[in-house]
Amino acid sequence: MPDTPTPPDPTRAGQEAALGEDGLRRCVWAASHPVNRHYHDTEWGLPVRGEQELYERITLEGFQAGLSWLTILNKRAAFRQAFCDFVPEKVAAFTDEDVERLMTNAAIVRNRRKIEAARTNAVAVLNLRAEGGLDSFLWSFQPERTPEPRSTAEVPTTSPESTALSTALRRLGFAFVGPTTTHALMEAVGMIDTHLVGCHRRGTSGVWPSG
């Protein structure tokens, strides 16, 4: 599932892949907290396909804006329950009363604009079906090359492709899809590989060589 990692600690900026107690090197953001580490080792950067799966990632990336990704990971089960497992038809049918109900749900991030954006984006996902669907649309923005960062300082937060994707999504009616958010989405679903060179997960997506 923008999915995106917690931004690196500024005091550790520029670090190369961190060596863990298990002898494996990982991206710095995943080196300490076990929830981040598990997500990094089992999900982040692996290819994600399918309308429902990608809609979930778009939604969670939007909720992550301004927060740590760890916060979203810890609430992911609650998000799935609150948003009907991210079935677009169900979320698109949410009423204003549903929005108010979600605003009282302490298990998720209670941000009205983000909740309303989830509903808005579900409608946009349904509308995209007439043009080939969300999956083919998003993956059409996959770049020809992926970054090859050797340290956290070299990890980009936007790209020409993420900017183009952001613009295209906004034209289609999506919300909370700025260039930084779409870049994080591209990282999370395997469209690019920003595992640090030296990280044991680099190149494991099958989309890009290890470099």
UniProtKB/TrEMBL annotation:
Q: Which domain of life is it from?
A: Bacteria
Pfam families tied to this protein:
Adenine_glyco
Q: Entry's SUPFAM superfamilies?
A: DNA-glycosylase
Q: Which PANTHER family match?
A: DNA-3-METHYLADENINE GLYCOSYLASE 1 (PTHR30037), DNA-3-METHYLADENINE GLYCOSYLASE I (PTHR30037:SF4)
- The name under which this protein is listed is DNA-3-methyladenine glycosylase I
Protein's organism: Actinoalloteichus caeruleus DSM 43889
Taxonomy, top ranks, is:
Bacteria, Bacillati, Actinomycetota, Actinomycetes, Pseudonocardiales
